Amino acid sequence: MELPRTLSIVSYAVNGRGLGHLSRQVAIHRWMRRYATFAGIRSQHWFLTTSEADTLLFHEGFAGFKLPSKSAVAEAGISKPSYLALAKQWIWHSVALLRPDLFVVDTFPGGSFQELLGVLDLCRHPALVLRPVRPEFAARPSFRALAGLYERVIVPSDAASEAGLADALRLDPQRLRFVGPIMRGEPFERLSRAKARSLLGVPEGVRCVLVSGGGGGDDGVGALFEAIEAAVPALGGEPVWLVYAAGPLFRGDPRGGPRRIWWTRPDLPRMHAAFDAAVCAGGFNSVHELGFAGVPTVFVPQRKVADDQHDRVRGWVDRGAALRVELGEGETLRARLVDALREVLDPARGPEIAGAARAMVPRNNARVAARELLSLSLPEGLLVQAEEELDDALLAEIHGLDVSLADLVQLAADLQGPAPIDRSALALAPAIDLLGESGGELPPTLLGRLARLLGRRIKSESVGPERLAEHLARLLQAPSTRGQGAALAMVLDALPGDRSLGGAAFVGRLRGILDAAANRGHDLLAVTRMILERASGSEGPRLYEELDQAIQASRPGRPPEGRP
Description:
- The protein is an alpha/beta fold.
- It folds into three domains: 6-178, 3-Layer(aba) Sandwich (Rossmann fold), CATH 3.40.50; 187-360, Glycogen Phosphorylase B (Rossmann fold, 3-Layer(aba) Sandwich), CATH 3.40.50; 391-553, no CATH class.
- The protein is built from 24 helices and 13 strands.
- It has helices at residues 20-39, 55-60, 70-75, 80-98, 135-138, 141-147, 163-169, 193-200, 221-231, 284-293, 309-318, 330-345, 349-360, 366-374, 380-389, 392-401, 405-416, 429-438, 444-457, 465-477, 485-494, 503-519, 524-535, 540-553; strands at 6-13, 42-49, 63-66, 102-106, 125-129, 152-155, 176-178, 207-212, 240-245, 260-262, 277-280, 297-299, 323-324.
- Strands 3-2-1-4-5-6-7 form a seven-stranded parallel sheet, sandwiched between helices.
- Helix 17 (405-416) packs across helix 18 (429-438) and helix 17 packs parallel to helix 19.
- The chain is globular and about 95 Å long.
């Protein structure tokens, strides 16, 4: 399969006004962007959404087109027929102009109001990410027929727990993929407890509880917040800090005061280590994200049209992975919350719940979903290599080095040599090692240029990326070249290759020349001038002999700055 130069990916989250659909799609796009970067492909990511939480796209670096949600339109007094007519035309024209290679729809195969029937033919590869829905939804003939229009159907759950869904859809197993839960947060992105608490403003040594109403648009969110405020004083012991993540759709007043934090940023998954416990709605993303992070949680399920939060939370409670409290009236709800909070905050019971929750969500499968979707456009071998190379350990190292994935991949490609790059065999470890050896003093772009130049000069030896990185590190660690990366590039650019020497011998000889020049007080710019003066009439071993003689016979120059 020939690799495309660009890949246009459009995600469609026109199913409501909340955060769940959009958050799941963002999680997948983040991994598709990583894999496309590894493949050397310029990926374009577009979102069409009605979510009122679309600022998430801005924070993640994705482009979004926003259509008002049906709820917002109703509140604005716009008639439903007028809105539907406008929305259908807007959607059709948007997709027609973008003509995506991959069109990813979330949960509802026909769209929110059957607007996708005339759109799917405009896309090269339509795919559906089908969050588990109520069985009666999946069993509808129209739902099943529309799901059959997609090349790939990704279910963010396991096949064993969703056997009824597979039976209801009756899809070819080659098109249906059960990948497991999909979330935004990754372990290598998660902040330490101390760092997360510092950013939140929560001191060490106190109990801290996250309180969330999901997207924040449900009627019971305000009542839940009131009940939490009433329950906390009854816990006794040390004061409890509350961090309210109300959600972008919450319209009530922010809650402030002593030990109260109102958190509105969309980066909550990386803050989870700060919390001793949580009280949260039972949405698909919230349940799995908190379980993945091991936060012992009291879930308060909300009633939804297609999403059965009560059934989901019941499954977690039955496995000892969470507690559940139902919204009720006044003192009853407060008393239940007090009992539940005491249990999740208990030093013995809390860790038991956290461990069971982690066992429910052992990994984030956003990367698996991304690979399944990209397999419609990219070769399997390339995706396998990308998945193996871009593991958590390597991505954590990238974060530690403060370097972009694009720069790292380009450096790895430069180290592979001047021949056409085989991305299905591209190894990133040599580039990581070289960045570590440079101590962050040289930007990856300069290291890449040095690698290309050195690879061209070592002509008599087939040098793989590991050896090339090793040779370059030896050069950069020499006292005569330290801090002069750009000037070293000029030396390598001026210096002809020598077919008589292997890589190690070539580098050893070059270091000898550079060290001799440094001892005579000449910097690398002076060495470059000496090479250019002799390169026209000499080549190979003779050039190096003449260069060495010229250095030894030269008058001492001014020592480089920092050298005695």
